Structures are given as structure tokens and as C-alpha cells.
Amino acid sequence: MSGDFQSVFLTEAQIQNQVKKAAEWLDKRFEGKKPLAVSVLKGSVMFFCDLVRAMNTPVQIDFMTISSYGSSTQSSGMPKIVMDLAASVEGRDVILVEDIVDSGNTLYKMRDLLVGRGAKSFTVVTLLDKPSRRQVDIKADYSCFEVGDEFIVGYGLDYAQQYRDLPYIAILKREIYEK
Ligand code: IMP
Ligand code: MG
Questions:
Q1: CATH number assigned to the domain comprising residue 87
Q2: Which among 66, 71, 61 is positioned nearest to 92, based on CA atoms?
Q3: How confident is the model at residue 69 (pLDDT cuts 50, 70, 90)?
């Protein structure tokens, strides 16, 4: 483990175990349907790939890149679309896949946008939920893990674009980002 970390928060095995459960939940909910799974990049990329492969339901996939942080650990509250979806969501059952719901601003914006574009249904699955930091009243339909007020990295999650490639999730030492 890197000296930048306080501790490991979730091992690879713990993550994969919950990915399987989330996939089962989605398979039940979307039986007989052809949903469009949307990955909110870059953070959800690892979770997204593991999740759609663990599902039995055939899904189409698409991607949207949202940026809200720059290099800080505080959300700007104004998430920007850096890259939009290729597919139309009109009349589609959309599964939005997030890495973490923190302030809730990103999710709020995504829901507004995709429901506004005519999605038939909108279901949110997040790997992590940080409810203590919520600024807007919004919740994922399914959440794998809850996390306290810590900054975590790995398995897609970054600090200043680092650590996304780790297969586990670790708590970043405060001295790394409180410089
Ligand atoms: P929001 O504050 O709910 O809009 O979350 C915005 C984004 O911030 C999330 O989708 C993550 O990409 C990122 N984020 C929030 N908390 C953390 C964290 O602890 N580590 C890494 N990224 C985070
Ligand atoms: Mg994100």
C-alpha cells in the first residue's frame, strides 16, 4: 500500500462481492427490458465495466464525462459536461452508474438533464454514498457502500487524476490534500 494512504477502505474482494449483488438487483428490476447503462466518467469506469459484465440482462452502454472538482477535494457545485452521450435517451430505461454521491450536485444535474431529454425511467446505482456531505436532497436507488467524511481513492476514484488504476479503495491521508 502506498504511503499516501491512511488505510485500505475496501479490498478488491469486498468490492466484487457487492458488484455481484448490485447486478442481481438490476437483473430483477430490468427483466425483459433493454436498458441503456450510462457510465459517469471518469470515476465510475471500473465499477461500470464490472457491473455490466456481472449482469445477465442485455444492456447497451454509453458514456458521459462530467467534471466538478479540478484538483481540489471539494465539489464546485457546478458540474460541467465535458463529453456528452452518443445515444438518445428518449423513451429509454436509463441506468445511471456513479462512483460516489457526495454533495449530490452531479446526480441532481444528470437526473434533470436525462429526464428532461425524455428518458422513460431513471435508475441510479452508485458504488459509494457519502450522505453526511449532501447539499441537495437526492438519493441513489441502489448503493453498495456508505462512507464517512473521508476522501477515498482507487477503483476509478482519483485525487488530482491519480490512483484511479488501483483495484481496491483506500483512504487518502489528510496531509496529502490539506497542504
Ligand atoms: P458530488 O459532490 O455528489 O457532485 O460528487 C461529484 C464527484 O466528486 C463524484 O462523482 C466523484 O467523482 C467525486 N468525489 C466525491 N467524493 C470523492 C472522494 O472521496 N474521492 C474521490 N472522488 C470523490
Ligand atoms: Mg463521478
A1: 3.40.50.2020
A2: 61
A3: low
